[in-house]
Specification:
This protein is α+β, with helices and mostly antiparallel strands and 657 residues long. It folds into 5 domains: 49 residues, Helix hairpin bin (Helix Hairpins), CATH 1.10.287; 226 residues, D-amino Acid Aminotransferase, Chain A, domain 1 (2-Layer Sandwich); 101 residues, Nucleic acid-binding proteins (OB fold (Dihydrolipoamide Acetyltransferase, E2P)), CATH 2.40.50; 153 residues, 5' to 3' exonuclease, C-terminal subdomain (DNA polymerase, domain 1), CATH 1.10.150.20; 80 residues, BRCT domain (Rossmann fold, 3-Layer(aba) Sandwich). It contains 24 helices and 24 strands. The strands form 6 sheets. Strands 12, 13, 14, 15, 16, 17 and 18 form a 7-stranded antiparallel beta sheet that branches. Strands 2-11-10-3-9 form a 5-stranded mixed beta sheet. Strands 5-4-7-8 form a 4-stranded antiparallel beta sheet. Helix 1 packs antiparallel against helix 2, helix 12 crosses helix 13 and helix 16 crosses helix 17. It is globular, with a radius of gyration of 27 Å.
Length: 657
Amino acid sequence: MYEEQQKRMRELHKVLKEASQAYYAKDEEIISNFEYDKLYDELVSLEEETGIVLSGSPTVEVGYEAVDFLPKEKHASPMLSLAKTKSRDELADWLLDKEGLLSWKLDGLTIVLTYENGNLSKAVTRGNGEIGEIITPNAKMFLNLPLKIHYTDTLILRGEAVIGYSDFEKINASIENEEEKYKNPRNLCSGSVRQLNNEITKKRNVRFFAFNLVSAPGVDFENSREKQMEFLESLGFETVYRVRVNKATIKEKIEWFEKEIATYDIPSDGLVLTYDDIAYSASLGRTAKFPRDSIAFKWQDEVAQTTLKEIEWSPSRTGLINPVAIFESVQLEGTTVSRASVHNISVMRSLKLGIGDQITVYKANMIIPQIAENLTCSDNVEIPKTCPACGGATEIREVNEAQTLVCTNPECPVKQLKALSLFVSREALNVDGLSEMTLEKFAEKGIIREYADLFRLDRHKSSIVCMEGFGEKSYENLVASADKARKTTLARLLYGLGIGGVGVANAKLIARHFDDDLDKCISSTEEEISEIEGVGPVIGKSFTEYFKNPVKVAQLNEVLSEITLEKTVVDQSAQTLKGMTFVVTGSLNHFKDRAALKERIEEKGGKVSGSVSSKTECLINNDVTSSSSKNKTAKELNIPILSEDDFLEKYGIPADF
């Protein structure tokens, strides 16, 4: 029996270590959090049953190995993980007769900060708990971090670097390539902080929330952790939101947090309970992996059982074919759910999915639908040998250590359709009336095959006017819209070409840098693009590689014969919002959508951010009295909250309608 148990323990070691390495060091997910927790708990049980803990066990090791390209440093004291529970009764019993602080367990990247003589001198990631990565230049780019404080002795504190959901969604919205989109805010934050270019950190709106004071010589905290947090706040730090609890009140407070998480903008994967009494906490000591003065509370996921109906294979513009699980509808966290991404072939195989299987599903962190378990594991899903869109051959490739299905046909219509859809979108050439459905119909009839064909619709008039849903008037409107789009800007063109990583904002930065000169853009080097403020080396590489592709260049030359690039003329006298940053939330009355208002603000020299910070000029929200997280943050920072009408009047901005 011991032999079988040890064999299983070694299997769990391998799976958990690979998953942890992928998640923490490479920002990739090869198994779900639900599956990881389940396997981890199984390993803990086996270790308890056998009394054996094998070398390098994930139950003993903390965090991840530091990456090679960043300098490293050993922590003065180990940074431990927290023991966890999903039981509210267990959490209340753990507190005993003591008072504690209950706070959000933020889902980001843990950082240790050191201040000397009132200045930030060092920032180090948690790493593996013993050795972390030095990221001081990047930490200085955190939105809300004080670089100078009035306390001049050596101050050491710990906290979480995070990116809010609103900023995460904004950044992902600027990335057209589905495979390049970030999976979650935690991965985005890790990638933004643990790299060499601090300009990337700066533009990602990373924020820091302190949760633990390690050392502040000479200050009397009256044996209270709450006093420590108040001290940090007096120095200008934002601290994690917390409430004081005892055994009688803790369950009520947990319910409050549970309701708040639905609208809380900062990613959280649970709660943390810590004793307020500093001396009592110190007397408890620690285990090999956990401190005894704190415990994590993980949300008890609402899980529903259902039947897997099919795996839908969804091709994308880059050729990746993503598996999506379709199942009988269930209610989760107050919404109806019938589909969930399976991410890739590796995840699908680990779940042993089969049509008709009984599966359980949940919402990760109460938000994202995921498959929790496969109860029947028939493992009968066939991986398509041909692309569902074009019939071309598929192959399984290793992408970041995960197996992924790829369409090998360079002429796959889905790739072309998605590319054309981006090219005619509002932020690109803005050809009104060409929905993806219409483009698909035109592609099927051979009317549109490449970008330039959008401006040659007159060659196919007889075919178009006879199509279902079209007529003479529809055709004329479409041609007029295409003719209107012939005059455009370099920024719109660059965005519309779908160059990897080049979103709307980056396209504007690059066009502005080269003074709207396309020839200069095409002949630029990777280094030139990388050095543009706010762009960076990843985009620099994809940008220059795009213009080395003869097929891409030929298509571009064709479309250039049909359009005129106009230089952007900036009226400096109209830059009335220069240097100001605004946040827009909620529905609007005088603009088609938030993107339209954002464009108007940028025309006036202003910037629009996805989250409220101390640098925000004002929050624009027609529901000024709402209890949303943005409104709460604005009130805490004394940032004005203006209705759309008040904003337009105060800053002299004309409405769209």
